[in-house]
Design goal:
Layout lengths: L8 E3 L1 H9 L7 H5 L6 H4 L5 E3 H15 L4 H7 L7 H9 L3 H11 L7 E8 L2 E8 L7 H20 L7 E3 L17 E3 L5 E6 L12 H18 L3 H11 L10 H7 L4 H10 L4 H17 L6 H7 L5 H12 L3 H7 L5
Parallel strand pairs: 5-6
Antiparallel strand pairs: 1-2, 3-4, 4-7, 5-7
Helix pairs in contact: 5-8, 6-7, 6-9, 11-12, 14-15
């Protein structure tokens, strides 16, 4: 299903985190790592990375030794921002939940290349969607639960707020241990189309408790260096640009803004995209069209409201942009779909 799983990696911190989590069941580091291909020197190297097959074997062993089927819940709830290395320090130094999401979208690859995140705001709900790019086999439930619960836990810790409006959706069958999930205090739903964490969009402006502009700048520089060291394929470059184009609060970034976020000059980014056979304007139009149509499908939103959510100062500008991308007016598209304008 997912070719090349051995090419995807996680930071070594995930191994160390698992070592700490399983201690509650009396499982030692030596017992957990016995016979698993994780060199001793890698455990002391903060920049070391572990291929997905090795991590899968390690998590399978952790579940066997602990006898805890819901291990992903414990891994998620025991997560601190520092697990994510340079990205974690950036998150801890951010000003708001919105800023932290932006950082996670930009620099998630320094944590793992096997999962990526998307962000959406519809009506009064915000969503962080997790996409898989490899096969996690028998521990898929643990990996996905850990990822979503950890993001919720870190945000709750850094805002010092209990984000009780959150819901976790999983594109997983309901597990046999579903009753044990009540310990999180979170609403969880299974057999959903995507993995996602949804929450009240008003939480996006919740302040973090330790904002630090200088520390954030230093952490971002380190994240950029780590991204460069990991390298980036043409497809990954395009995917990263697409992630950066939408602004968390609505609207879209310019070429100059995206280039600055990637520590490149606009000319360099433009050239790199051209080498990949695509232009920035094409990617931006695609993101605009996708978001505009998603909002037009919501019949209770007026055209002025949609224009505002997409960052347009007036409806006329939104209509011109939509017509340019689709050869139809927003009202005409709604009529064609059997909706009123």
């Amino acid at each position: 299903m997912f070719p090349g799983s051995s090419l995807h990696t996680f930071g070594i911190a995930h191994v160390l985190h698992l070592v700490e989590v399983v201690k509650r069941w009396g499982v030692s580091r030596e017992a957990l790592l016995a016979g698993i291909d994780v060199p001793a020197e890698a455990l002391g190297d903060p920049h070391a990375r572990v291929p997905v097959p090795t991590l899968v074997t390690l998590v399978e062993r952790a579940r066997l030794l602990t006898g805890e089927p819901a291990l992903g819940v414990y891994c998620g709830l025991q997560t601190r921002a520092t697990l994510y290395g340079s990205l974690g320090f950036a998150l801890a130094s951010a000003s708001t939940v919105r800023d932290a999401i932006d950082l996670s979208l930009r620099y998630g690859k320094v944590v793992t290349t096997a999962l990526t995140m998307r962000f959406r705001v519809e009506r009064q709900m915000a969503s962080l969607i997790v996409d898989e790019h490899t096969d996690f086999g028998s521990v898929r439930d643990i990996v996905i639960m850990t990822t979503l619960i950890a993001w919720w836990k870190v945000s709750a810790a850094l805002t010092a707020r209990d984000l009780t409006t959150s819901t976790l959706d999983f594109a997983l069958p309901e597990p046999e241990y579903v009753a044990r999930l009540a310990m999180t205090g979170l609403r969880m739903r299974f057999n959903r189309p995507v993995h996602r964490l949804t929450f009240d969009a008003r939480s996006l402006d919740l302040p973090y408790t330790m904002p630090d502009a200088v520390a954030l700048a230093l952490a971002r520089e380190q994240c950029e260096r780590e991204l460069e060291s990991l390298g980036m394929t043409r497809g990954e470059l395009t995917a990263r640009v697409r992630v950066l184009i939408p602004k968390p609060g609505g609207g879209f970034r310019t070429l100059e803004e995206v280039a600055a976020a990637m520590s490149r000059s606009p000319r360099t980014l433009k050239r790199q995209l051209a080498t990949s056979g695509i232009s920035f304007s094409t990617l931006r139009d695609s993101e605009f069209r996708e978001r505009a149509i998603a909002l037009l499908r919501l019949p209770d939103l007026s055209l002025p409201q949609i224009a505002d959510k997409l960052g347009y100062s007036n409806t006329a500008n939104f209509e011109r942009a939509f017509r340019r991308c689709t050869a139809s007016s927003p009202a005409g598209w709604r009529r064609a779909m059997g909706q009123t304008a």
